[in-house]
Amino acid sequence: MTLPTLDGAKDVPALVRLLRGWGDALARALRLPALSERGVLLQSVALSAGSTTVDHGLGRAPSGWLVVRSRGAAGAGIAEVSSDARSLVLTATAAVSVDLWVWP
Predict the structure, then answer these.
(1) pTM, whole model, 2 decimals?
(2) What share of the chain is helix, strand, coil (3-state, %, to 5)?
(3) Which residues pair with 62 in a beta bridge?
(4) Nearest of 38, 91, 44 to residue 60 by alpha carbon
(5) Burial group, residue 65, by CB count within 10 angstroms (0-12, 13-18, 19+)
(6) What angle do CA 42, 48, 54 make, to 5 degrees?
(7) How far apart are alpha carbons 53 and 47 in whole angstroms?
(8) Residues 6+ positions from 11 with CB-CB distance below 8 Å
(9) Residue 80: which of 57, 60, 97, 61 has the closest Cα?
């Protein structure tokens, strides 16, 4: 993306509007639950083929989770079976070690 050439002071209001628009969009994105600083990063969680219970420590059922790193079986499928205020039950198609970002 390229910005048009600015022509002195007359283009300042347009530039201010552009920066405010970007700032507003960034502020909305940072309010997304997945980007919340209240989430937890669970590192090196060993998932076996089948169901595994993972303690998350959020104090309430998570509203979402994301695998941020995977080591082991390439392409292992991971799905949520259930969750509560203490734990998350995940099922995997193969044994894999993952880092999980879990948010309230």
Answers:
(1) 0.67
(2) 25, 40, 35
(3) none
(4) 38
(5) buried
(6) 35
(7) 9
(8) none
(9) 61
Same domain, 52 and 98: yes
Question: 55 with 11, same domain?
Answer: no
What band does 11 get if pLDDT is binned at 50, 70 and 90?
A: confident
Give the helix/strand (H/E) hosting 21. helix 12-30
In this prediction, residue 66 carries a pLDDT of 92
Angstrom distance (rounded) from CA 73 to CA 89: 19
Domain that holds residue 76: 37-103
The DSSP letter of residue 31 is T
Digit-coded pLDDT (tens) for 16-71: 888 898 988 888 877 776 666 678 899 999 999 999 999 999 999 998 999 999 99
Are 44 and 64 found together in one domain? Answer: yes
